[in-house]
Amino acid sequence: MEKVSVFCFGASYFVAFVLCVVFLARPKPWVRFLEIAFAMGGILAHSIYLGYWQPPLVGQFGWLLLSSWVLTVIYLYGVVHYRQFSWGLFILPLVISLVVLGVFFPHPDQPKGSSAGGWFASTRILGLFHVGLLLSATVSICLGSLASAMYLFQARQVRVKLQPGKGLALFNLEKLESWIRGSIGVAFPLLTLGMVGGMLLIAGQAQQLQGWLDPRVISTGVLWLAFLALVFARYGFQVRGKQLAWVTLTTFFLLLICLVLPHSFPQEGGR
After folding, report:
1. Coil, helix or strand at residue 118
2. pTM listed for this prediction
3. Which residues contact 183 (CB under 8 A, 6 or more apart)?
4. Strand, coil or helix: what is 81?
5. I want to staple 45 with a disulfide (CB 3.0 to 4.6 A). Which of 8, 85, 87, 176 is the partner?
6. Nearby residues of 28 by Cβ (< 8 Å), 6 or more positions away
């Protein structure tokens, strides 16, 4: 298991994306089969890697890899149930980007797959609560951002009045807008509760903070901006269509900035 690396599943996802592009030019069943096969091979290696190393979820590396794993599962569901749509062209680049971004952060030096507690052994309950909620909110916003990108692309195709059979096969605008609103509806309470947990963690570390420029303070401020954007999208009755899509994309990028900023959480036993 220790021979399974990030490169293994990252390369598999990249090949699956290339095959997804090839399928646009040559829509042959064998191309789609190979795309799904490489994606499934990637998620198998991805699962083995996560299970063996169990990178801490309080770190950027573990968070990014687990988020990309969840999105890959959703991709496989979509490519099987919505085969007529260009699903992979949007979600696979996001998965690959999260994996590549994760490589730039510290990796675990010891496997934890056989240790007692694994992922949950070293972090206090409040830290896990905070991380779990923000991770779930991030995945939901990722899906909302994908729907937003599809919406903007589909709106452009509608505007230029492409002939039937031309352009990318995507869901209709009404369906995509409902998906965006659904992702916001799920992410809003998760992000709200996650922020409450984060504020309690910050309060407990007040003596360790290095002023307003402390990364933990900055990341909290960025998270607040994401929260305000989400409030605007959730309760702005006049926010529709393109405006809603752009607000959702803005929220996604703010969450991503918050994610890559340095942060730490209290450990059990004062470690």
Report:
1. helix
2. 0.82
3. 140, 141, 143, 144, 147, 248
4. helix
5. 8
6. none
